[in-house]
Write a structure and sequence with these properties.
This protein has 15 helices and 22 strands. It is an alpha/beta fold. The protein has a 9-stranded mixed beta sheet with strand order 9-10-8-11-12-13-14-15-16. A 6-stranded mixed beta sheet has the order 17-18-22-19-20-21, sandwiched between helices.
Length: 451
Amino acid sequence: MEPITLQEILNWTDAEIVNCKNEIVFSGVSTDSRSRCKDCLFVALKGKNFDGHSFVSDAVKSGALAAVVERRLSENITQIIVDDTLRALGDIAKNYRRRFHCTVVGITGSDGKTTTKEISAHLLGSMFDVCSNQGNFNNEIGLPLSIFNISRKTDIGIFELGMNGRGQLRYLGGILQPDIVVITSIGYAHLGFFKNRAELAEAKAEILENISADGLALFNRDNDFQNILKRKGCFLLKGIGFNPFCEFRGFIKNYNGDYFDLEIDSWRNIKFRINSWNGAIGYPALFSVFLADYFGIPKCRLPALLNSFILIGGRGRIRTVKGIRIFDESYNANPGSLKMALEYFALQKARRKIVVIGAMAELGKWNSFYHKKISSLVRNLHFDYVFTIGDDARIISESRKNRGIHFEKIENMIEYICSFVKPGDALLVKGSRINNLDLLVQKLTEKLETG
C-alpha cells in the first residue's frame, strides 16, 4: 500500500477525531489485531459474533497508529470516530483507488469468478504489474482490503466481487469503480435470495452502474438476460461463450479426461491445451484469453501461458495418492457447477467412480427442486457409489439404494470413506462450503500419504 495521511482519512470519512497530537502517515490498513499492525490504521469492525472495538488495545500493542471506531474508547490512541466502521472502510478504499490510473477489472458471476481472476492475473502478469484479491477476498471487507494492495507501479487491477443479495454489487462496484466488468455467468448460486433468475440477473447487473463511461463489459452469452445488462448503460457489451451468437466464441475439442483443447473462432492455427478434467473451466479460460488479447499480449504467447496455469485447491485440482485420484471440487457448489462437474467426472476411466456430494446452500424455495434434479442426473450417470452429507442432499444418495450412503456428520463420512477407497478409484468431492468437504479431502489425503 502507498502511504495514507491522517488528513486524507478524515477527508474521506467525515469523521470526528480525538487524541490527535500530530500528523500521522499510515503504511497499511488492518481489521485484524492478530496480524501485523505496525504503522497501520486499525478499523474496528463489528459483526454478529465479534466486536473489533474489544481488540483496539491489542492493535495498539501490535503497532497501530490510530483506530477507526464507532464510539470513544479509553485507549490512549488517536481515534477516528464514525457512524459505521464498515462503511468507513469502504469509503477509504474507494478514495484510495481514485489516486491511481491503473486499469481496473471487476469480475462477478454465479460460477468461475475466482478461476477467471486467477487465470487472467496469470496471463496478464506475464507482461504487466498486476494486483488482485487474495483467495476469495470479495465481500464488503475483503474487497476494500484487497484494493489497498494497489500501488504506483500497478498496471492492472483484477478484483472479484461476490454477492448474495440486492444492493451488494452496487455498493462494491461503487468502491471499485471498474473500467472493465466481467460477468462470468448468471446461474443458480444464491438463488434462494431472489424470486427467480431474472431478479438475480438484475442484482448481477448492478455492477454495471459504476463502470467507467468508456468501459467494456464482458458477459456469458450462453446465459440469457442480455437485455437486462444492456439497460444499465452505454458501455461496450461483448458476449463470450460457446454458442453461435457469441462475439468471442470458443470450441472444446479432444477431451480425454485429463485435458482438453480450446479453440477460438477466427483464431486460426492457435490451440489452447488446458490441463483440467472439467470442461467448465473453458469459460474462465475464454474470458481470460479475451482480456489478454485486449491488453495486447501476443496471441502466440498465450497457449504456453494458459497451459502452465495450475488450478487452485478446492476448485478442480486432482490429488493422486496411492493410486487413488481425488477430484477436489470441495470449495463450493450450485446446481449449474455441480451438474457440469458430475457430467465431466462421468467421462473418467476408473476402477470405481465415487461421488461425494454436499448439500447445495442458499437455494431457498428452489432447494427441493434442484436437489431432485441432481438426484435424477446422478442416477442416470450410473456412478458406482454415491455418498452425501447435508439434509437436502439425502435424496441424492437414497436414489442409488444399496450404492448410496447418507452421513449426518462429516467425521463419520471421513472415517468411512478413508477405509472404503481402494487403488484405482476416482473420487469426486463437491458441495457447498457449509458441508466442510475440504476437511474430507485433507484427512483422506493425509491418511493415504501416511498409511
